[in-house]
Design goal:
The protein is an alpha+beta fold and 124 residues long. The chain has one domain: Hypothetical upf0131 protein ytfp (Roll), CATH 3.10.490. Helices cover 23% and strands 40% of the residues. The strands form three sheets. It has a three-stranded antiparallel sheet with strand order 1-5-2. A hairpin with a 5-residue loop joins strand 6 and strand 7. It is globular and about 35 Å long. The termini are far apart.
Length: 124
C-alpha cells in the first residue's frame, strides 16, 4: 500500500460538495467517487448567509443531513477518497451548524460526513 493510500480519508457528500465548482474551489481538483447512502438521516434545507460560500456554490440554499435514527431514512450521495489536508479544506467550506461526524454508510464503509449539529447522532 502506498503512502498516499495510507493518508486517505473517506468523505461522504450529498450536496454542494458534489458540484465541480465547489470541488475546484475547495480541493483544487475534481474528485472521483463511488455511490453510497447515509442511513438514518433525512435532508433539510439550510439557508446560507456566508457570501463566500454562496459565491462558490452559486446557491443561497443548501441541504443538510438531520439525524432521525430511522433505517428507512436514507440520503443518496457519493464517497470520495481525499487527503487529511483536503478534509481541513472541506471543514473551512462548511458553515454552522454543520458538524463533521464519522458514520457507517449503507455499504458498510466508514466515512466522514457533514450533518446538522443541532440534529446529530448521539455521541457525536
Amino acid at each position: 500500500m502506498s503512502e498516499s493510500q495510507l493518508n486517505t480519508e473517506s468523505l461522504f457528500t450529498y450536496g454542494t460538495l458534489q458540484l465541480e465548482a465547489v470541488q475546484m474551489a475547495t480541493f483544487g481538483r475534481l474528485l472521483t467517487g463511488t455511490g453510497d447512502a447515509l442511513v438514518g438521516f433525512e435532508v433539510a434545507p439550510l439557508m446560507i448567509d456566508d457570501p463566500a460560500v454562496i459565491t462558490v456554490s452559486g446557491k443561497a440554499q443548501h441541504t443538510i443531513a438531520q439525524y432521525t435514527g430511522r433505517a428507512a431514512d436514507t440520503i443518496p450521495g457519493m464517497v470520495y477518497a481525499i487527503s487529511p489536508a483536503e478534509i481541513e479544506s472541506a471543514d473551512t467550506y462548511e458553515v454552522a451548524p454543520c458538524l463533521r461526524v464519522s458514520v457507517v454508510l449503507h455499504s458498510g464503509r466508514r466515512a466522514w460526513v457533514y450533518v446538522d449539529g443541532r440534529h446529530a447522532p448521539p455521541g457525536s
